[in-house]
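TA notes, week 10

Several of you asked for a full example with nothing omitted. So below is the full record: C-alpha coordinates for the whole chain, then the designed sequence directly under it. When grading your own attempts, check the secondary structure regions first.
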Protein backbone atom coordinates (compact mmCIF):
# COMPACT_ATOMS: atom_id res chain seq x y z
CA UNK A 1 0.00 0.00 0.00
CA UNK A 2 1.32 3.42 -0.99
CA UNK A 3 1.46 5.93 1.89
CA UNK A 4 0.65 9.47 0.80
CA UNK A 5 0.60 12.67 2.81
CA UNK A 6 -1.73 15.43 1.69
CA UNK A 7 -0.97 19.06 2.38
CA UNK A 8 -3.90 21.23 1.42
CA UNK A 9 -4.04 24.98 1.33
CA UNK A 10 -4.36 28.08 -0.77
CA UNK A 11 -0.59 28.30 -1.36
CA UNK A 12 -1.01 32.01 -2.04
CA UNK A 13 2.02 31.98 -2.30
CA UNK A 14 3.72 28.67 -1.39
CA UNK A 15 6.63 29.26 1.00
CA UNK A 16 9.39 27.47 2.89
CA UNK A 17 7.05 26.76 5.80
CA UNK A 18 4.91 24.58 3.51
CA UNK A 19 7.97 22.80 2.13
CA UNK A 20 9.48 22.23 5.57
CA UNK A 21 6.25 20.74 6.95
CA UNK A 22 5.89 18.46 3.92
CA UNK A 23 9.47 17.23 4.12
CA UNK A 24 9.38 16.63 7.89
CA UNK A 25 6.12 14.62 7.70
CA UNK A 26 7.40 12.67 4.68
CA UNK A 27 10.49 11.67 6.62
CA UNK A 28 8.94 11.12 10.07
CA UNK A 29 6.13 8.87 8.82
CA UNK A 30 8.20 7.28 6.04
CA UNK A 31 5.64 8.23 3.41
CA UNK A 32 6.06 7.55 -0.29
CA UNK A 33 4.89 10.98 -1.45
CA UNK A 34 3.41 14.27 -0.36
CA UNK A 35 0.56 15.56 -2.49
CA UNK A 36 0.18 19.34 -2.40
CA UNK A 37 -3.52 20.00 -2.87
CA UNK A 38 -4.35 23.64 -3.65
CA UNK A 39 -7.97 24.43 -3.02
CA UNK A 40 -10.22 26.58 -5.13
CA UNK A 41 -12.46 27.89 -2.38
CA UNK A 42 -11.56 27.01 1.22
CA UNK A 43 -14.74 26.61 3.29
CA UNK A 44 -13.13 27.96 6.48
CA UNK A 45 -11.82 31.20 4.96
CA UNK A 46 -13.42 33.93 2.96
CA UNK A 47 -11.88 33.68 -0.49
CA UNK A 48 -9.49 36.52 -1.10
CA UNK A 49 -9.30 37.99 -4.53
CA UNK A 50 -5.55 37.73 -4.63
CA UNK A 51 -4.22 35.80 -7.60
CA UNK A 52 -5.72 33.45 -10.14
CA UNK A 53 -5.73 29.69 -9.53
CA UNK A 54 -3.38 29.28 -12.50
CA UNK A 55 -0.80 31.54 -10.87
CA UNK A 56 -1.02 29.70 -7.54
CA UNK A 57 -0.61 26.40 -9.38
CA UNK A 58 2.41 27.66 -11.32
CA UNK A 59 4.06 29.02 -8.15
CA UNK A 60 3.48 25.66 -6.47
CA UNK A 61 5.09 23.85 -9.41
CA UNK A 62 8.12 26.13 -9.10
CA UNK A 63 8.29 25.65 -5.31
CA UNK A 64 8.34 21.83 -5.41
CA UNK A 65 10.46 21.44 -8.56
CA UNK A 66 13.39 19.14 -7.97
CA UNK A 67 11.76 16.99 -5.28
CA UNK A 68 10.41 13.80 -6.86
CA UNK A 69 8.50 12.96 -3.65
CA UNK A 70 6.41 16.14 -3.94
CA UNK A 71 3.43 16.01 -6.32
CA UNK A 72 0.57 18.40 -7.08
CA UNK A 73 -2.95 16.97 -6.75
CA UNK A 74 -5.31 19.47 -8.48
CA UNK A 75 -8.62 17.75 -7.60
CA UNK A 76 -9.93 20.67 -5.53
CA UNK A 77 -8.98 23.27 -8.14
CA UNK A 78 -11.06 21.36 -10.67
CA UNK A 79 -14.25 21.56 -8.60
CA UNK A 80 -16.64 24.48 -8.33
CA UNK A 81 -17.65 25.84 -4.92
CA UNK A 82 -16.20 25.19 -1.47
CA UNK A 83 -13.60 22.42 -1.18
CA UNK A 84 -14.75 20.14 1.62
CA UNK A 85 -12.08 17.66 2.68
CA UNK A 86 -14.73 14.99 3.39
CA UNK A 87 -15.88 15.08 -0.24
CA UNK A 88 -12.32 15.15 -1.57
CA UNK A 89 -11.19 12.21 0.53
CA UNK A 90 -14.20 10.15 -0.51
CA UNK A 91 -13.18 10.68 -4.16
CA UNK A 92 -9.47 10.02 -3.54
CA UNK A 93 -10.15 6.83 -1.58
CA UNK A 94 -12.37 5.61 -4.41
CA UNK A 95 -9.87 6.53 -7.14
CA UNK A 96 -6.80 5.25 -5.27
CA UNK A 97 -7.88 2.16 -3.30
CA UNK A 98 -4.26 1.04 -2.90
CA UNK A 99 -3.27 4.26 -1.08
CA UNK A 100 -3.32 5.16 2.59
CA UNK A 101 -3.79 8.90 3.10
CA UNK A 102 -2.40 11.15 5.83
CA UNK A 103 -3.92 14.63 5.89
CA UNK A 104 -1.48 17.20 7.26
CA UNK A 105 -2.89 20.08 9.31
CA UNK A 106 -1.42 22.82 11.45
CA UNK A 107 -2.40 23.35 15.07
CA UNK A 108 -4.74 26.14 13.94
CA UNK A 109 -6.78 23.53 12.05
CA UNK A 110 -6.60 21.02 14.92
CA UNK A 111 -8.50 23.50 17.05
CA UNK A 112 -11.00 23.89 14.20
CA UNK A 113 -11.60 20.13 13.62
CA UNK A 114 -14.95 19.99 15.47
CA UNK A 115 -16.31 22.46 12.91
CA UNK A 116 -15.09 20.56 9.83
CA UNK A 117 -17.78 19.44 7.41
CA UNK A 118 -18.72 15.78 8.11
CA UNK A 119 -15.78 15.37 10.50
CA UNK A 120 -17.07 12.09 11.99
CA UNK A 121 -17.23 10.58 8.51
CA UNK A 122 -13.92 12.13 7.49
CA UNK A 123 -11.88 10.52 10.28
CA UNK A 124 -12.95 7.14 8.87
CA UNK A 125 -11.31 7.97 5.51
CA UNK A 126 -8.05 9.64 6.45
CA UNK A 127 -5.46 9.82 9.22
CA UNK A 128 -4.89 13.38 10.38
CA UNK A 129 -1.31 14.46 11.02
CA UNK A 130 -0.87 17.53 13.18
CA UNK A 131 2.12 19.86 13.18
CA UNK A 132 2.83 22.66 15.63
CA UNK A 133 2.06 26.29 14.95
CA UNK A 134 3.01 28.98 17.43
CA UNK A 135 0.26 30.06 19.85
CA UNK A 136 -2.20 27.26 19.00
CA UNK A 137 -3.26 24.33 21.14
CA UNK A 138 -3.00 20.76 19.88
CA UNK A 139 -5.71 19.43 22.20
CA UNK A 140 -8.47 17.54 20.41
CA UNK A 141 -10.85 14.62 20.85
CA UNK A 142 -10.15 13.46 17.29
CA UNK A 143 -7.43 10.96 16.32
CA UNK A 144 -4.41 13.00 15.26
CA UNK A 145 -0.82 11.81 14.85
CA UNK A 146 1.71 14.47 15.76
CA UNK A 147 4.96 15.21 13.99
CA UNK A 148 7.46 17.59 15.52
CA UNK A 149 8.47 20.19 12.98
CA UNK A 150 11.00 22.96 13.55
CA UNK A 151 9.10 26.13 14.36
CA UNK A 152 9.02 28.48 11.41
CA UNK A 153 6.52 31.28 11.72
CA UNK A 154 5.86 32.13 8.07
CA UNK A 155 2.45 32.66 6.56
CA UNK A 156 1.29 33.44 3.04
CA UNK A 157 -0.59 36.51 4.29
CA UNK A 158 2.60 37.84 5.90
CA UNK A 159 4.46 37.32 2.63
CA UNK A 160 1.72 39.07 0.62
CA UNK A 161 1.89 42.03 3.00
CA UNK A 162 5.68 42.20 2.77
CA UNK A 163 5.54 42.17 -1.03
CA UNK A 164 2.79 44.79 -1.06
CA UNK A 165 4.90 47.13 1.10
CA UNK A 166 8.12 46.55 -0.81
CA UNK A 167 9.85 44.53 1.91
CA UNK A 168 12.14 41.63 1.12
CA UNK A 169 10.79 38.09 1.00
CA UNK A 170 14.15 36.50 0.25
CA UNK A 171 14.68 33.29 2.26
CA UNK A 172 10.94 33.08 2.97
CA UNK A 173 10.08 31.38 -0.31
CA UNK A 174 12.04 29.81 -3.16
CA UNK A 175 13.76 32.20 -5.57
CA UNK A 176 11.82 30.92 -8.62
CA UNK A 177 8.58 31.79 -6.81
CA UNK A 178 9.89 35.28 -6.02
CA UNK A 179 10.88 35.70 -9.68
CA UNK A 180 7.40 34.59 -10.78
CA UNK A 181 5.70 37.04 -8.38
CA UNK A 182 7.82 39.90 -9.72
CA UNK A 183 7.40 38.87 -13.37
CA UNK A 184 3.61 38.63 -13.08
CA UNK A 185 3.30 41.69 -10.81
CA UNK A 186 1.43 39.72 -8.15
CA UNK A 187 0.45 41.03 -4.71
CA UNK A 188 0.90 44.65 -5.64
CA UNK A 189 4.44 44.42 -7.03
Amino acid sequence: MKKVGILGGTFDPPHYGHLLIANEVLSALQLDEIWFMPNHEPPHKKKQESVMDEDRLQMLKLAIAGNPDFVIQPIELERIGPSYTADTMKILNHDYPDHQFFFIIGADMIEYLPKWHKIDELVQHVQFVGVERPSYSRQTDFPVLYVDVPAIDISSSMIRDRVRFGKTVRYLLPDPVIDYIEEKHLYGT
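Residues 2-153 form a domain with the Rossmann fold fold (CATH 3.40.50.620). Use that as a sanity check on your answer.
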